[in-house]
Amino acid sequence: MTASAITENALLRTERVTIRFGGLTAVSNLDLQIGRNELVGLIGPNGAGKTTVFNLITGVYQPTAGQIFFDGQSIVGHQPYRITVRGIARTFQNIRLFPSLTVFDNVRTVFHLHLRGDVRHALWRGRAFWDEEQEIAGQVRELLEIFHLEKSAGAPAKSLNYGDQRRLEIVRALAARPKLLLLDEPAAGMNPNEKTDLMRLIQFIKGKFQISVLLVEHDMQVVMGICERIAVLDYGVKIAEGRPDEVRRNPKVIEAYLGEEMKNEDGG
Amino acid sequence: MRFRHAKLLLLAALGLSLLISLFANRINPYALFVLYNIGINIILAVSLNLINGYTGQFSLGHAGFMAVGAYTAAVITNQFGVLNGFESGALFFGALLAGGLFAAVVGLLVGLPTLRLKGDYLAIVTLGFGEIIRVIFQNMNAVGAARGLSVMHGYTNFFWVFGFAAVTIYVVTALVHSTYGRGFIAVRDDEIAAEAMGINTTKYKVSAFVIGSFFAGVAGGLYAHSIQFLTPSGFGFMLSITFVVMVILGGMGNTSGVILAAVLLTLMPEGLRKLAGYPHLGWIGDTRMIIYSLMLIVLMLARPQGLFSRRKKFQGATS
């Protein structure tokens, strides 16, 4: 699938997005599109601006120039929580759970987005409140079961092991019922077995929840293994885009980033 | 915690306070005064716990909001002469609510600009605002300025104090034990993650601040009609620090612990004062504030996570 083919119906579209921090142009004229139910990878050497792109999409940073459209509407200038409400959820490169809340409550907290009643329900604690809380508890448990975290539901999030914390972050993001899920280096710090599990998990999520995924990742095995399309950033500029095998062969990419690794792979 | 029968418990607490207030004339006045102070301090500590403990916003201005409520309620009731039982009850209730609402409005005005700040910076700014409120009363001739304000009617009784303490505990607990209210703790644990999960962190922080200020104002009104004389210097920042100590000692974000700490810290100075009356213990009377401070230091060294907290150590979100 080429970039132009999905222009009409893209879920997320950035148009010539640029951000400067003082004299440094961190991202320059970035055009990026993510189609519906598509799994796109964003790669690049250290400091290429990948996480900055995430922060631009989620409203943490405001672009110096350019536009970002989600579901056909501009989201530039919206506060981060509003963008989440619109349907973009993310995970963090350095895990950011709510450490003192239980695993259950970490997910439950996000369900405030779907509450029918407001704070008055919580204060009155009538029938409607308890019904809704019960419904939420059921949905939280369902989500935790899908990701095999139901056994630790009552434990504080900080007591989970590293891999489970990463998975809980993904569950928590999914609880927001996003249309687009942004994963920031989910394989960081994982061993090969965990990486294989993670790849399966990401593909499973995409199918099960019918969402698009944008994946920032250092690990080539993961990115090349599951992404349908890959965009390559170098010094804030998109230098290549295409199917994994196209990107793999692209001389610019090899020069910027993959050089050593590709030769080794060919040799092996 | 299920918190299922909360409403029943609240009604029971209200009924019990009413019942005790009917027999209050049998309790000796000094003990009654100390009991009122306990109830008032419970309201202040539990409401501050919503701001400092659950939401993690370090406020040092609680005495300021208490002062706003105290002066507002006192000025209102001073407009009226002696009333019969029902009328005075209605007037007092209205005055307490007015004091609470005015404190909440001030809390909103203070909270909107300052809650962008975090940690130490927020503490300093709220401290400054608390002092500004005190200095305004100190220079306001209409309320007696530095000479102080006499409160003509001692309307405060057992029912009002412990009724409002029960309402405060109910509101804070009910809020926090709901899907909506988990957002307060999420903001404390990790503000960036909370925002990314769709939580309007500004709204949560300001709500906590406004609700906390409201109950501080109500407590101020109760205090005014119990002690019956207000001086601006009585609402200095040392008082705010006393409430913060109650919250920390009870364990940040642990309501039952904070209630116990409020009781303990109200009784401790009184107990030391009492001891001073015995032979050979006169020195305690002279040094009771030193003993009090030393006890605080020892408690904090021995139980940094809070006296009544089961958690190993409070893990705050500082970033």
Task: Note the topology.
The complex is a heterodimer of chains A (268) and B (319).
Chain A: E1 12-21, E2 24-34, E3 39-43, H1 50-57, E4 65-70, E5 73-74, H2 80-86, E6 88-90, H3 103-110, H4 119-124, H5 127-146, H6 162-174, E7 180-184, H7 192-209, E8 212-216, H8 220-226, E9 229-234, E10 237-242, H9 244-249, H10 251-267
Parallel strand pairs in A: 3-8, 3-9, 6-7, 7-8
Antiparallel strand pairs in A: 1-2, 1-4, 4-5, 9-10
Helix pairs in contact in A: 3-6
Chain B: H1 6-22, H2 29-54, H3 62-78, H4 85-114, H5 119-138, E1 149-150, H6 158-176, H7 182-189, H8 191-196, H9 201-227, E2 229-230, H10 237-250, H11 255-275, H12 282-302
Q: Portion of residues in helices of chain A? A: 40-55%
Mean pLDDT of chain A: 89
Q: What oligomeric arrangement do these chains adopt?
A: heterodimer
Number of helices of chain B: 12
Distance between the termini of chain B: 29 Å
Could you say which overall geometry of chain A the principal axes of the C-alpha atoms support?
globular
Extended strand count of chain A: 10
Measured by DSSP, the beta-strand proportion of chain B falls in: under 5%
Description of the structure:
- The complex is a heterodimer of chains A (268) and B (319).
- With 268 residues, chain A is α/β, with parallel strands linked by helices.
- Chain A has two domains: 3-87 and 178-267, Rossmann fold (3-Layer(aba) Sandwich), CATH 3.40.50; 99-162, no CATH class.
- Chain A has ten helices and ten strands.
- Chain A is globular, with a radius of gyration of 20 Å.
- Chain B has twelve helices and two strands.
- Chain B has a two-stranded antiparallel ribbon with strand order 1-2.
- In chain B, helix 1 runs antiparallel to helix 6 (158-176) and helix 3 packs across helix 9.
- Classes of the chains: A alpha/beta (268), B mainly alpha (319).
- At the A-B interface, helix 2, helix 3, helix 4 and helix 5 of A face helix 6, helix 7 and helix 8 of B.
